[in-house]
Amino acid sequence: MLKIHVLSENTSCSADFGSEHGLSLWIHGDQTDVNGLKGNLLFDTGASELFSVNATAMGLNLNDVDLAVVSHGHYDHGGGLKAFLALNDHAKIYIRKSGFEDHYALRKETDHVYIGIDQALASDSRFVFCDAHEEIKPGIEVFSEVSGERFLPSGNHVLLERRGEAFVPDDFRHEQNLILEKDGRSYLIAGCAHTGILNIIDRFRVIKGHMPDVVIGGFHLYNRAGHQSEPDEKTEALGRELMKTGAMFYTCHCTGLQAYDVLKGVMGERIAYLSAGTEITV
Q: What CATH number is given to the structural domain containing 14?
């Protein structure tokens, strides 16, 4: 089993914790476990230093993190990296090299807003640039380059990359997903699932030969730029497909509360929501 603290998320479980458009998870391992995750892992750093403020409120010291994984190159997942580098003096940070490229969102018809992470940090020797599928250590893997067309988020159309002077659709090669294995159980953790949560699960199954036991993360069912959720019918259909996997789901962030309510109506006890300040054991 894993213990997870939610350090940053769009909502908070109480007034004791701040919230923002972002995601950061502290995942506790077991120092005595010789097979699987050992130590503490940080998944994403939210949009700002808020993840560190909430960590302190939860009695956690970020210098106790042994390694960090950044899911992709958007500010709401890597905006706290500078703060993390200052607060932790040793942990390696695993990220796709393309995570430091120029990522933009189209807010209006011609208004391109930079939504990437601080490129000045890329030269820090603590960053490790990951391949398409890489084992970080036994029980910890990352993978990217997810293909498939099942339930792709409609909000992707406003997300762009800048190549030279041109803005082109983001192909999300900078997005990676985390696999954890512990005590005979497998965990799949996604940041925003821009490549589609079902396609990510399909890729997990190809890599591991079975479905995950637990899936955690944002499913990108809410388009923040357009303030619009996916149609309920599409979300209901997604929920039915997720049920077929047999996994337990914990979602948050870019799923959006409206879409979560729709998924909850379909999936019942097989899905739960994570807010900042929440602690779960899965």
A: 3.60.15.10
**Cα–Cα dist 115/25, whole Å:** 20
Nearest-CA neighbor of 141 among 104, 89, 177? 177
Tell me how far apart the alpha carbons of residues 238 and 235 are, in angstroms, rounded to a whole number: 5
**Overall number of domains in the chain:** 1
Average pLDDT over residues 26-54: 82
pLDDT of residue 36: 53
pLDDT at residue 32 is higher than 60: no
What's the Cα-to-Cα distance from 94 to each of 11, 139, 147, 267, rounded to whole Å? 26, 15, 21, 33
Q: Which domain holds residue 256?
A: 3-281
Reply yes or no on whether the pLDDT at 82 is more than 50. yes
